[in-house]
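Recall that a protein's primary structure is simply its ordered list of amino acids. Everything else, from secondary elements to tertiary packing, is in principle encoded there. The following example makes that idea concrete.
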Amino acid sequence: MLLCKFVGLDNLLKKNLFHSKLNPWQYLILSFFLLISFGTVLLNLPFVKHVQGLSFIDSVFTATSAVCVTGLTTVNTSGFNGFGEIVLLLLMQLGAIGIMTLSSSFILAYRGKVNLKHRISFFETQENVSLGDIQHILPFIIRITLITELIGSVLLSIGFFIQGVPFWESIHQGVFHAISAFCNAGFSTYDASLTGMNSLIKYTIMGLIIIGGIGYYVIYELTEKYKGKRLLTLHSKIVLVTTFILIFFGAFLLFVFERGHVSITDSLFQSVTARTAGFNTVNLTNLHYLSLFFITLLMFIGASPGSTGGGIKTTTFFIVIASVFKILKGKNTIVVFKRQIPNTVILKSFAILSVYFMVVFIGTLALLYHNHQGFLNTLFEVTSALGTVGLSLGISAEVGLYGKIILVVIMFIGRVGPASIAMSTFRKTKAVKINYPEESVY
């Protein structure tokens, strides 16, 4: 209560801004836009310093990358002073949890309940969350975030201390990288990211990335299943199976493509981080073209719904692949784990896939038009921005003003999702009342 009054949230809540005419998708987009603007202002305050200086476009780029938990940078993160790092952590944390989720949790803590209209608004932006679960999930999101980041901070602090970093500096590095990893942001205070770090740091970062990337609702269901209160839904089963396959199959292929020049641990790390986080333990510019192209595919797929990561999502990828195999077998229904996938979900999955392909295509063309960084490098950077991954071949700082603007737009689209932008133009779904005769197309 006192905190709410101190930050001015008390009056904000009394005004009940959620009774505005904005639908949830428009509110989500506006929230992230305002947060990016707020972050840009913070990065331009006098007490935020960077050794290279920070131009306005670099401030916008950095704020967008932090809020969209991408990790692409045009200036070295190591160049920020302590206040600059705090601003980055704040933007990453708010961007990862999501403005609507965070505000819902504050209202829940303040009022002790969430009103029906706000619960419906939250439900519409979180498709895999049932309306009855929202009041339990919102405080769970805050709780699991703080607990995971705390445990990660302790383990990473130990890891950095073993690495030879002084005690207090190891705590500083542990906290920063724990938040960055759980938020799937990929920001690192080391210019070479995590190259040369010990196994404790690498595996802790991998664990944080995976927990942050499978989605809050999957974690919630796993804890409820552990308590014996419910069984896993089809959504959680698909997320867990797809995540497991992508991580280990991806690591195997990367190890094969690099012909043993990259260790098993590093292959596993790059497979995990490629779909969402943006840390690297090897120099990406030294990787084979096959590895870079495969990492681009992993970045395109991304994390899972309701997580801190981006991409088309593991569920979309699973449904598209399952649909293709079923169609090739001559079947007109998709049954997974003894559950039939609705046709509306299948159509939406292919629509999301198509939109992402178009954004990557247009973004790559636009970036190539203004720069000559090579096709694969440009495709890699655009996909990394759209998937809010943050892996880079080092061209973000070299693309110039127009290139940076293009990447900023792509990062924003990748965070709020093309589906969100499309849905924001509709007030409600309209049922088709007229059925026309069918006709085949060759």
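The chain is about 65% helix and 0% strand. The longest strand covers residues 335-336.
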